[in-house]
Amino acid sequence: MTEIIDLRAIEQASVTRSPFDFFTVQNALTHTSLEAIRADFPKIDKPGIFPLTSLTYGPAFSALLKEINSSQLSDIIGQKFGIDLSKLPLMVTVRGHAQQKDGRIHCDSKDKVITCLLYLNEEWDAAGGRLRMLRDGENIENYAAEIPASGGSFAAFRVTPSSWHGHKPFIGERRYIMFNWIRSDKARRSHEWRHRLSSIIKNIVPFFYKNSAAKDKHS
Fold first, then answer.
1. Which CATH number describes the domain made up of 7-217?
2. Predicted structure pTM score
């Protein structure tokens, strides 16, 4: 069976240690795989992060998820950061669109041990929406690395109180899978519950808005 994720490229990537531990891979997917995955990407027409339980998708996307959940990938990522990830739960979420407020400088929740981002767009020419690994929590221009959201771009970092990251504003389609190794099942369930609640609200609000607008139109 042909691998979708280029594990060798990830294994051979150099880890940058300053301002925090991270590494990037420019082409973590083959071009053929990327086209199939993009075709089978979940239909997401709203901003926000969505849990897998709220999405439907095709077989190529499902095959990618299987590799993300593989012990081979967790072993490689764990070795690169010097962490045994084998007993930590994995949380996978998906984003399809970015809005103006996305990308603000932040550090991930302390419940997260490692964050990985795999982008599933076409070539990324926009100035906004490029992930930046930052040297501080104040200045988006003070970055150690910038990763365009091109299809196949991959970034991974160890979550710490100083693992600042973000991107300049972008509005529009910006597809990626985020997967995180979490410190406990309880923490993972809590994060997934919040993402599920958020996705439900995103579906309910347009429904009420649409019905309210229809009533106003006929009043």
1. 2.60.120.620
2. 0.87
